[in-house]
Specification:
The radius of gyration is 20 Å and the shape is elongated. It is mostly helical. It has 2 domains: 67 residues, Arc Repressor Mutant, subunit A (Orthogonal Bundle); 152 residues, Up-down Bundle (Four Helix Bundle (Hemerythrin (Met), subunit A)), CATH 1.20.120.
Length: 232
């Protein structure tokens, strides 16, 4: 009941069904969802921790504007990707990746441990196989692990913390049916990123990752421009 109520309220708020400054009472939530007072209070506490709502005495649960939301919270990202705000959320996530991942690759070329650089090369090889076999499910999981490892290999804890953001972006793109069979050039670029990091060629790692991001952004830009869940 806790999980179900949290999902429904989270989606209602992030989709705008419950707009900013809307007020619902604990009693209303109990009656509408058939939940106990303790479950309702626990769910509200989670929403408060994420900046989505605030419980105010003699008022009720007040929905907060998006400027208060913890926009890097993976749960909020997932809710927004399930809402009518999906296009805007995908665009924002992609812009974060474009800004961060090339620099993370550069730092990884300077700081990556040998064992992590070796894992990157292994993942790049497995990505190639999954791409050639058009196994999109396997490719998705490997791609997530590859990009998360680049972030953590940067040695920057804040970059590493963005791994969950990358996961939600890639899963959201997959769930929206926007994944296609990777082109040979894209597969090669992942190998080139891993190779550059392993060799300590930090500037080369930066340029290769920037090209990965540029190609991905080019694929998604028609959808962003048209505002529809379909790549032209």
């Amino acid at each position: 009941m806790h999980r179900e109520l949290l999902e429904q309220l989270g989606l209602a708020i992030t989709s705008g069904q419950l707009p900013a400054d809307a007020v619902v009472t604990l009693e209303d939530l109990e009656a509408q969802y058939g939940a106990s007072r303790s479950v309702v209070r626990e769910v509200v506490r989670v929403l408060e921790s994420e900046g989505l709502a605030a419980l105010r005495r003699r008022v009720g649960v007040v929905v907060l504007p998006s400027t208060n939301w913890n926009l890097f919270d993976s749960q909020i990202i997932r809710w927004r990707l399930l809402s009518s705000a999906r296009i805007d959320q995908l665009r924002a996530l992609m812009e974060v990746r474009v800004a961060v991942e090339p620099e993370a690759a550069r730092l990884a070329g300077l700081r990556s441990r040998r064992v992590d650089a070796g894992k990157l090369m292994g993942l790049a090889g497995r990505l190639w196989v999954a791409g050639e076999e058009a196994d999109l499910k396997e490719f998705l999981e490997l791609d997530i692990r590859f990009h998360q490892l680049v972030l953590t290999s940067s040695g920057n804890d804040m970059f590493g913390h963005l791994g969950s953001v990358v996961r939600e972006m890639l899963v959201g793109r997959h769930d929206a049916g926007l994944n296609s069979t990777p082109e040979l050039r894209a597969l090669q670029l992942h190998v080139d990123v891993a190779s550059a990091i392993q060799r300590g060629a930090s500037d080369e790692a930066y340029e290769n990752m920037r090209e990965v991001m540029r190609r991905t952004m080019d694929e998604l830009t028609p959808m962003f421009d048209n505002g529809v869940d379909q790549v032209a």
